Amino acid sequence: MASLPLRHEREGVTLSPRAAYEAALRRKSIRLAVVSSLAFAAAVVIFVPMAPGWEAVRTAFFNWDLLVETFPKLLQAFLIDLMLFAWCAPAILVLALVIALMRNISSPTLFPLKVFAIFYTDLFRSVPIILTVYIVGFGIPGLGLQAPWNSPYLWGSVALTLTYSAYLAEVYRSGIESIHKSQTSAALSLGFSQGDVMRFIILPQMVSRIMPAIMNFMVSLQKDVALLSFIGPIEVLRQANVFKALYANFTPYVGAAILFLCITIPATRFSDYLIARERARRTG
Amino acid sequence: MASLPLRHEREGVTLSPRAAYEAALRRKSIRLAVVSSLAFAAAVVIFVPMAPGWEAVRTAFFNWDLLVETFPKLLQAFLIDLMLFAWCAPAILVLALVIALMRNISSPTLFPLKVFAIFYTDLFRSVPIILTVYIVGFGIPGLGLQAPWNSPYLWGSVALTLTYSAYLAEVYRSGIESIHKSQTSAALSLGFSQGDVMRFIILPQMVSRIMPAIMNFMVSLQKDVALLSFIGPIEVLRQANVFKALYANFTPYVGAAILFLCITIPATRFSDYLIARERARRTG
Amino acid sequence: AGCADGKTMTSGVLTIATGNPAYSPWVMNDAPESGEGYEAAVALELARRLGFEKSAVAWVRTSFDEAIQPGPKNFDFNLQQFSIRPERAQAIDFSDPYYLAGKALVVRKDVAERLGSDLSAEKIRDLQFGGASGQTSAIFISKVIKPTKDVLLYEDLSDVQAAMMANQAEATVVDVPTSLFLTAVRYPDGRIVGQFAKSNDETDDKFGLLFAKGSPLKDCANKALADMKADGTLANLEATWLNKKAGIPVIDLGK
Amino acid sequence: MTKLSIRNLRKSFGALEVCKGISLDLAKSELICLIGGSGSGKSTLLRCLNLLEHIDDGEILLDGEDISVPGYDPERVRRRIGMVFQSYNLFPHMSVLKNLTLAQTRIRKTPPAEAKDLAMELLLRFGLADKAETYPDKLSGGQQQRVAIARALAMEPEILLLDEITSALDPELVGEVLRVVRDLKAQGITMLLATHEMGFARSVADRVAFLSGGSLLEVAPPEKIFTQPDHEQTRQFLKRVLDPI
Amino acid sequence: MTKLSIRNLRKSFGALEVCKGISLDLAKSELICLIGGSGSGKSTLLRCLNLLEHIDDGEILLDGEDISVPGYDPERVRRRIGMVFQSYNLFPHMSVLKNLTLAQTRIRKTPPAEAKDLAMELLLRFGLADKAETYPDKLSGGQQQRVAIARALAMEPEILLLDEITSALDPELVGEVLRVVRDLKAQGITMLLATHEMGFARSVADRVAFLSGGSLLEVAPPEKIFTQPDHEQTRQFLKRVLDPI
Ligand SMILES: Nc1ncnc2c1ncn2[C@@H]1O[C@H](COP(=O)(O)OP(=O)(O)OP(=O)(O)O)[C@@H](O)[C@H]1O
Ligand SMILES: Nc1ncnc2c1ncn2[C@@H]1O[C@H](COP(=O)(O)OP(=O)(O)OP(=O)(O)O)[C@@H](O)[C@H]1O
Ligand SMILES: [Mg+2]
Ligand SMILES: [Mg+2]
Fold it and tell me: Do at least 3 CB pairs under 8 Å connect B with C?
């Protein structure tokens, strides 16, 4: 069903009765949203503290003083997360694409590549990521690499990239396969090579379809760089863990969560905005 | 491009020159695949052990005796994983669908639900899953619940379900939005309600599109039930962790990985088979 | 001096690793450099005897995983209440013990009231135990106490404590010094109801320094430790940093 | 008796006004053909009538009741008004048979066996009985179009909106569709049919409506419109159309 | 001079044999219209010629060279043979203009400005200049079809395979397409055109090929085929077709 357009209001023209009615409906529902959210929040704020254990739980998870005390160090550790994310994310996006393309091969001569891609996704998805981190992060440097080539940052990132790209490759694959075959036919008939069809026709259409799923990966990767802490680097979740152990209190995790929220929410909203804009341009 | 059909061979009819040529091509590529895989495996088997640290790495990760010794207990702990998976997976699939449907609402009266769904996905994706596990697993029972209602199995599963369904909801959303609007138009014009359109037209088409992505979630959930071990239950990765600490050796993780592989690979292959069959039926 | 020459990672510097964080009373205030806390004091004294003054000691932090990984280590020795266990000998080396820990049973306040003075083996086996994964106490729980309910295992002691506060675990076992610190500072609602009789077998907790497999420094350290034991230094440090164990009733689990 | 009445209907896409105040009355069992150039707004008008597009202004009266008021239950309307789309819009995940029976069993609560009988009857009529178990992506263009028509007919609506329903059909099948349309008329079904085929319009319509650039310029019986239209514009369109080369 | 030669082409989908050994020669700059009932295999034949379907048997000779041998580079063929699809298959993520220019700049290496000029010229010719920046999903059926034709023409192929290219067009535009087709013929382009519109076939074709159930029954100049076909089956088809009601 067509959703109600907001256009008229913005333009500030005099409203027809129809438009006025719809505007009223919209206003009413927004009021309802606000009221019901407030009511829910109020219920939580009023009733939860009445539970017998509330005081202990509050201290364990929401200790303001501890939050203030630990936050600067958490923030500092968060920079490591950002740094790891900054180089893992592009590597994952690209490697996953390569795997997905190999997975998609139909030519018999390149069949071995397809087998490799299947093997790759099966293996790295099945093996617990923690083992991959251990084997790649401890095992490979343990074979006798010297500094700087034994850096846990390096090999930890490699481990993350291997695992994440196995998962993301499958998402790409579902995106690629969701494009109707007639698009490929049309592009081929114009003389595009298989590679060009992928690059100009399939991938652009796929990306906007699977964008929410890709954002999923970015959001979760941002937190999974914490796995690297198993092999050394002290990023924000590890730092929160240290504080937790030190103070026997979970508040530092809340501090970490706040940091993550500050990145995730704007990023998700922005990607949603881009998708919506693209959709509007295409279908009106 | 049309992939080469295998049909003729199977039927055992005499081959036309064209079919014979293609069959030869296929055989050649399979040979190539086998040979190149073997070559790669051989290279690994020959060269890696020549690294100076190989002996130490081999002992740390691939200790056969230790594997044999720890495997029975790992297997036993794996049953807990399976059990947790067995009830979390359906809960996640359903809850995620509910959230995705709420996210997809366009009616202004139900707008609050949409806001809630956005809030939900933002929150539970941003908050590190470990914090969710701690807050739900320790915090809620800590409010004063008595046995059996304070069970870590219960609340740990709740935490997992909350987080995973936030992620999966976004995958559903991208699936739903990838169905062309004309399908909705057609169904509505037949008199279907919005709900029926979703149920009979959008969801069935979406599911087969995002199946690989859903399998991703199942594969990773199977291993993330390990997060429950933070609040007590001893599942296979925790058991491996215990052995690791006991023997100062990572081999038990390899044992756990083997168990995961035994489930993941058949499951993925089976879902791929179903998708391929469905696709063949639809497009030939 | 002399024994350790050329055997350290960086010449002229002794690199000692401890946990992140390091717990009291082993290291006070998570600050090993100060030399306060039993392990910090032992480490510095040992360093001195090996010829490294306080200023020549570098402290690093490692997790257990980093301590046992197969590659080169970033420390000369590592101490964070590592128990000397024969199973670990394939991967790493231990020094002789620098502390022999007794084990205490810590329970929730309400459980302590329920138990009263009845410390019979059956009563104790019926408790819901929680333990920190990978630590010797957890092994002690399952191998020696053999509780009737499945043990719950956690990341570290603070999680065990949280589980006890959440009513999910009733009891845990920790070494005696930790138990005293725990109930005095961290978890006032916890009660030490008893300590376990030593069994003089592999379930006893002997803490040792951890070395990379085949570290040449091990013999020097063992010699210094033996000296410290012989001249009473270890006992003195123990008296300074680890509270008395007196007054805790002894639990006999029988055999 | 007026079955469907369109009053001053307006619809814009952004700055583009596609329906510029269209008014038209359809009597019960009347068949009006909508002709006009490509992009003149035929499909959009039909979509508006089925409440698939949100209209900007005007009224749509079904049996005298305004179905275009905001909040009016669109499902009730659509059960009574069937539509065949220019682009067919078959459901690709269902066999042809299922495409025809799902709405029957689900919405009209027809028993499955009955629904299947009706569907098979329609498929037989359109020469598609052997394709019942096939999926839409495996059909030729004309086969898909016939399935789309059959799907709408299976719902036995009171009003049918038909958008270019013969464009992919060979003339032989066009004849069959013409017969079907006449049958439906005889059953009292009201129809609005957008078409480019003037011959078809001429032979089937009660009245022909000429749409140009979003405005309804002229509505008249086919003989009149094809021989002596009122408007100069209509005359010119038909002149070019009937003798294009 | 024979440009494209089809020899005994066979194609099955599973048990359904859609092309039952079709042979046909197209001379350079010849225009052959393919007629036949819905489902008779017209679209499939065209797809086979463009190597979009894997054929089971037979040969396709382009300038005497067999392009159907396994392993022959299909891109080289498709650069020379253009195709317009019955279902248009526009690229929904690109503006109309981009739909027309991408292949030019990418494959023919036309400079962007030149490609744009050619595209705009084609759009103007088809009355779509104002839709250059619009996206395909916002176009009417006829507008999409015209864009699809323009997209193929922009590649200036030697041979054009056209599948029902006038089905969504009003007669006025059909006239325009007819003019375009004649121009192309004059430029020496060879065309194979599947159509349901006998009038169109009659006025444009050099020869007409009648396809029935996957077999090519008869190929002859339009005057002959429409007045005195050799085959009884052709006669009957045309009889029903030309006087369907
Ligand atoms: N992918 C496919 N799988 C199975 N059958 C198919 C497939 N594509 C087409 N067919 C069948 O092949 C036959 C010929 O189809 P084709 O599209 O070539 O017909 P056509 O002559 O173009 O018809 P129309 O005029 O209706 O477009 C039809 O019966 C159709 O159902
Ligand atoms: N969603 C949309 N957004 C913007 N413009 C649109 C949209 N849908 C249609 N249009 C425009 O509205 C006009 C009318 O389109 P419509 O589909 O109603 O034409 P039509 O008369 O059915 O044409 P045809 O005979 O070619 O099918 C066209 O110019 C088209 O480009
Ligand atoms: Mg239209
Ligand atoms: Mg066709």
Answer: yes
